[in-house]
Amino acid sequence: xxxxxxxxxxxxxxxxxxxxxxxxxxxxxxxxxxxxxxxxxxxxxxxxxxxxxxxxxxxxxxxxxxxxxxxxxxxxxxxxxxxxxxxxxxxxxxxxxxxxxxxxxxxxxxxxxxxxxxxxxxxxxxxxxxxxxxxxxxxxxxxxxxxxxxxxxxxxxxxxxxxxxxxxxxxxxxxxxxxxxxxxxxxxxxxxxxxxxxxxxxxxxxxxxxxxxxxxxxxxxxxxxxxxxxxxxxxxxxxxxxxxxxxxxxxxxxxxxxxxxxxxxxxxxxxxxxxxxxxxxxxxxxxxxxxxxxxxxxxxx
Length: 301
Ligand SMILES: [Zn+2]
Known about the structure:
This protein is α+β, with helices and mostly antiparallel strands. Helix content is 20%, strand content 29%. It folds into 2 domains: 118 residues, Nucleoside Triphosphate Pyrophosphohydrolase (Alpha-Beta Complex); 136 residues, Nucleoside Triphosphate Pyrophosphohydrolase (Alpha-Beta Complex). The longest helix has 19 residues. It starts with 12 loop residues before the first helix and ends with a helix. The structure holds zinc ion (ZN). The site of zinc ion has 8 residues, from loops.
């Protein structure tokens, strides 16, 4: 838990840029983390409907005092020391102030720590909406103060927001005849089908991240890997509550092997020289793109 400092600086794009320069992931603090009992007008107010958030007319996150009288606030954490609160609504009709925007749109435009907080709001709202009843005895669950968790008042079952780890892998091979390194990109059968993306999938029970990488790559493109290196991670707000993406780079075991797609999850897979990647790549705010850009930069002479 994080106790807010007495001063409440305004979160700014400059602050976010500073945080990135220092190599810190931003100042979004943990869990339900602040001690205030009710929002102050200067606190951030995140209003979520499904996967959309209410923003100010200029597209940023509103202060609680800018919103019409709203109830049901849940502590969400802090951003640069400013307490943030979440409330859910069902309608996305014309708001009295601002406008509704998707998390994707916010992530594409706002500084990373702000987008991360917005993503956390969507994840927590989704979890709260889909974890209302005890899975063991069907009683209504009650919030656990100070945690993103609920507990059953009848049988005591503890229900935290559990994370779902997923892995994605940038697979490379040496270019033919000393040419540029090649990167394997795939097109999916569903979701954003127009993008050339990376092999990805959820980790299964009993697997390490590395085991999941090898299994997914084998299942989806019938390739075996040589070395695997951890790259970084990103919370992902779109694919359900609590998805955590872990990115890896890997080299293929047999540089002469060609990918074979399953035709079910993937419709295409091919090697691209890193100096001639397609333009239809994942968005700049995604770890998929960070991986692709890092592999391309590393292979440059
Ligand atoms: Zn129960």
